[in-house]
Write a structure and sequence with these properties.
Layout lengths: L3 E5 L4 H12 L3 E6 L17 E5 L5 H8 L4 E4 L12 H18 L4 E5 L11 H16 L4 E5 L2 E2 L6 H10 L2 E5 L4 E2 L2 E2 H13 L5 E5 L5 E2 H12 L4 E5 L1 H17 L10 H6 L13 H4 L6 H9 L9 H11 L1
Parallel strand pairs: 1-2, 1-4, 2-3, 4-5, 5-6, 6-11, 7-10, 8-13
Antiparallel strand pairs: 9-12
Bound molecules: NADP nicotinamide-adenine-dinucleotide phosphate (NAP).
The site of NADP nicotinamide-adenine-dinucleotide phosphate has 26 residues, from helix 1 and helix 3.
């Protein structure tokens, strides 16, 4: 009988790459999510029946218990940027993560991998970062041999970062950013997946790993790289932190009065996070210790951002035609 892994959030952006890799390793994969009917895209990652989306809400003991039964490894990829609502930071990233680890320990699961984030810090002014730290503490209290991965911002075909700004650049002459000089170390989604798989297979030593890509770049630098990739010229406008806080407050108010129908473009919590660099800290374990060579952004971005060029996939032909005319 092949081994079984339960992947909480295995249908999400990062989770699906981990699901694909665990299936390729020959494991049976249980993808535990709230809406299994919207997670059917993971089924072709394995042979028929090898990858199964199942219902689970990590806010509920009974459903976590049901999906943990018989698992040899558990990987938790559930996170949120929602500060309110039932699926909020505290419920998901602190209580939820701790619950998943507690039940894995109760059921004698051998290996536990958790996705946290760079910046996880119990003293952070950001609720996202504080609940990530609380979740890590809850996990280590229950599963001391866990592998915890803290990525910087993650990029890849389905990312919410480059895709979002590239989409904006199609229509808007200006790209508004908060924290233009804040530094990031973007990491390729499949490199994060490789690290998670090593945790589940037991080929990574237990502990915390900070995962950053090859390049460290400011937010402004990342926008320039994205604009070069989609071959558009746009003005990058830095919104000062004070003004961004006021704007975020306004957007949160709109969200409240519309009962959540109009989600904010940015929250005050995100503005607070954007004040701090998001790069691997000195002395932290990372890709080097896992023997993984991080993928460069320029090797991957054109593969999915081409659709934001003015002529889409025909841009190269247009360019060469222009050169011929000249
Ligand atoms: N993306 C990044 O740039 C980045 C950077 C640093 C750290 N991380 C961390 O990496 C992890 C994965 O991020 P991601 O971008 O892949 O997230 P994502 O795309 O939003 O995926 C979240 C997944 O969790 C599931 N989920 C949400 N709430 C749940 C609940 N209460 N119970 C069970 N499943 C639930 C979702 O499916 P349903 O909605 O069907 O439940 C989905 O499969 C998160 O912990 C995130 O904080 C991400």
């Amino acid at each position: 009988m092949s081994k079984l892994v339960t992947i909480h959030g295995g249908s999400g952006f990062v989770g699906r790459y981990i699901t694909r890799r665990m299936a390729a390793e020959g494991w049976r994969v249980r993808v535990a999510v709230r809406r299994p009917n919207e997670a059917l895209h993971v089924k072709p990652y394995g042979t028929p029946g090898q990858v199964e989306p199942v219902f689970c809400n990590i806010r509920d003991d009974a459903s976590v218990r049901a999906v943990t039964r018989g698992a040899d490894a558990v990987i938790n990829c559930v996170g949120t940027f929602d500060r309110g609502g039932r699926n909020n930071y505290h419920a998901v990233q602190d209580e939820g993560a701790t619950r998943v680890a507690r039940i894995a320990a109760e059921q004698g699961v051998a290996r536990f991998v958790h996705l946290s984030a760079i910046g996880a810090d119990a003293d952070s002014p950001s609720g996202y970062a504080r609940t990530k730290a609380a979740g890590e503490a809850g996990i280590l209290a229950n599963m001391p041999e866990a592998v915890i991965l803290r990525p910087s911002i993650v990029f890849g075909r389905e990312d919410q970062f480059f895709n979002r700004f590239a989409r904006m650049a199609r229509f808007s002459p200006v790209l508004p950013v908060v924290g233009a000089e804040t530094r990031f170390q973007p990491v390729f989604v499949d490199d994060v997946a490789k690290a998670a798989v090593m945790g589940a297979l037991g080929t990574a030593r237990p502990g915390i790993y900070e995962l950053g890509g090859r390049e460290i770049e400011t937010f402004r630098g990342l926008m320039r790289l994205m604009l070069r990739t989609i071959r558009r010229r746009r003005l990058i406008a830095n919104i000062p932190f004070g003004i961004a806080m006021v704007m975020a407050y306004g957007m949160e108010l709109v969200q409240t009065v519309t009962f959540g129908f109009v989600p904010p473009q940015i929250t005050r919590d995100q503005v607070r996070s954007l004040r701090v660099d998001n790069v691997v800290a000195d002395g932290q374990r990372g890709f080097d210790d896992l023997g993984i060579e991080p993928t460069a952004m320029e090797a991957v971005l054109p593969e999915y951002l081409w659709r934001f060029r003015s002529s889409g996939q025909y841009e190269a032909i247009h360019e060469s035609a222009r050169n011929l005319k000249g």
